[in-house]
Each structure stands twice: as C-alpha cells, then as structure tokens.
Amino acid sequence: MEFIKAVRRKEKRKMSSCDSVSEENKMPLPYIFEENGYRFISYTELADADHAEIIEKRNEYRNLAHNTALLTMEGHLGFVGKLKNMPDRMYFAVRNAGNIQIFSINIQNIDRKLKSCEWGFFKIEKCDSRDVLRSFVRYLFEKSFIETITGCVKVDNVKSHLIHAALGFEAEQELNRDGEKVYILKREDLRR
Q1: DSSP state of 191
Q2: Side by side, which strands form the sheet with 89-95?
Q3: Taken in order 62, 74, 102, 187, is the CA torsion positive or negative?
Q4: Which of 71, 58, 139 is nearest to 101 (CA)?
Q5: Is the full-model pTM beyond 0.85?
Q6: How high is the pLDDT of residue 5?
Q7: In the chain, what are the domains?
Q8: Are 137 and 19 in contact (CB under 8 A)?
Q9: What is the tens place of the pLDDT at every residue in 1-37?
C-alpha cells in the first residue's frame, strides 16, 4: 500500500512538473495523463523494459514510416534523454486498463503561435486503434492549446489513411519527400 501511495505522489509531481517551466516552453500535455480508460505516459517516464518493447514494435513498422532506419536501444535511450529539453515534441506510450502497453503516439513540431502539431503513431499490441487515437485527439483538443493536428502518411499506407479518415482527418496536399509520395493529412478542432 505504501508503494502505491509513493507512486501516486511521484505521478502527481510528474503531472504538474511542466508548471515550473516558462509558458513559452511549457509542454502542451502532462507527462502522464489518463483519458477514456487509457494511460498516456511520456517516454521520459518509462522503464528500460518498456523502451525495449517500443523499439521492437517500432522496427517492425519501419517499412511503413517515412524514415525506415532501424532503431537501437542506445540510440533510442539517447533520444529519450534529450526529450525533456525539446519543447517542440512529446512521445507517449499508451497502456490499457490492464496496464498493458498497447500503443505509441508522438506529437512534434509543436507550434504555440499556430496552435498546431504533427503526430505519428504505431500499435504495439492488438487493440481498438481508433478508440485509442480518438481518446488522444479528444484530450489534445479539450485540454491543451492545440487546435490543429497534421500527419504525414505514405500514399500506399492504406491502413493509416483509413484510420485518419475515421478520425476526421482530410488530405491537405500531396508531396514528394525524399523520392516518396506522401499525403499531408489535417484535422482541426472545429469547436474553437
């Protein structure tokens, strides 16, 4: 019981840890938050075993990503070590009610003036991808300054296009990046 209380105290500190940062550098989301039965945990707060699982799954999906280079544990942990000093990006592991890591979501190119960010994601375990992502988008629009989310998706990544369409994203433009055709997809918070 004392262990659980200590973990809760630590998580409360993490959830408010961005309050001590200047408004300009404040992260748009807390390092740990819950929405719709899912727990979103910043990569900076994860154990090495959690990172190993992320790397394994991320490397499985690398062929679908714009950057196809494989990740290493050393490179990944080096990147994670820099994340707290990078106010333009956040990476989250997502756990379900059974505390199983099921998803990874990142937001980057966070722009306070434009109230926008770009996102990416991949599935770690079988789950309802749309529900996880819908929960994240809802939290982002309702509890942060973000009003526009964009995503860059390869033209031939049909699953990602279907998920984005189900979440209300629309194709904004087609680009040629590094010899590959990609779509820039966009979703705006229409309530604001």
Answers
A1: T
A2: 32-35, 38-42, 89-95, 101-111, 116-123, 148-154, 180-188, 170-177
A3: negative
A4: 58
A5: no
A6: 34
A7: 2-140 (3.40.630.30)
A8: no
A9: 332 333 333 333 333 333 333 444 455 678 899 999 9
